[in-house]
Design brief:
single chain; mainly beta; Beta-clip-like; 11 strands; about 5% helix; globular; transferase; SET_dom_sf; methyltransferase; histone H3K4 methyltransferase activity; transcription regulation
């Protein structure tokens, strides 16, 4: 486990409204939203952990999973392998979009050309673990 992607949990309709009305006008700033499921989105644009700063790569060194712990879902970023100090953390955003493909600029040799995919109904991978089995990380 590297870090939890934390922020305000909102409904998808609220996330869409925020993105259109507010966040699109933020010059030089991004929108940091991560879908848990069809009913919940984590909005880390104004509050949350620094996990929202982890960039996309088509050949990432981390991956994300929704983990259920003590009855609550959490988005956790895990390392795929040992990552040396000073190496940028990345994961594959690969979110489904109905509108447009967003160009990828990761620069890796296996780049697929887009950060997202079109219309996948695929459910995110879920891991269920009691909170007592999770390691408390002290930074």
């Amino acid at each position: 486990m590297v870090i939890e992607y934390a922020g305000e949990i909102v409904r998808p309709i609220i996330a869409d409204i925020r993105e259109r009305r507010s966040y699109d006008s933020l010059v030089g700033a991004g929108t940091y939203m991560f879908r848990i499921d069809d009913e919940r989105v984590v909005d880390a644009t104004h509050a949350g952990s620094i996990a929202h700063l982890i960039n996309h790569s088509c050949e990432p060194n981390c991956y994300s999973r929704v983990v259920a712990a003590s009855g609550e879902d959490h988005i956790i970023i895990f390392a795929k392998r040992d990552i040396p100090e000073g190496v940028e953390l990345t994961y594959d955003y690969r979110f489904a979009s109905k509108d447009e493909l967003l160009t990828c600029y990761c620069g890796c040799t296996g780049c697929r050309g887009s950060v997202n995919t079109f219309g996948s109904d695929e459910e995110p991978t879920r891991i269920i673990a009691p909170r007592s089995e999770l390691t408390k990380w002290i930074v």
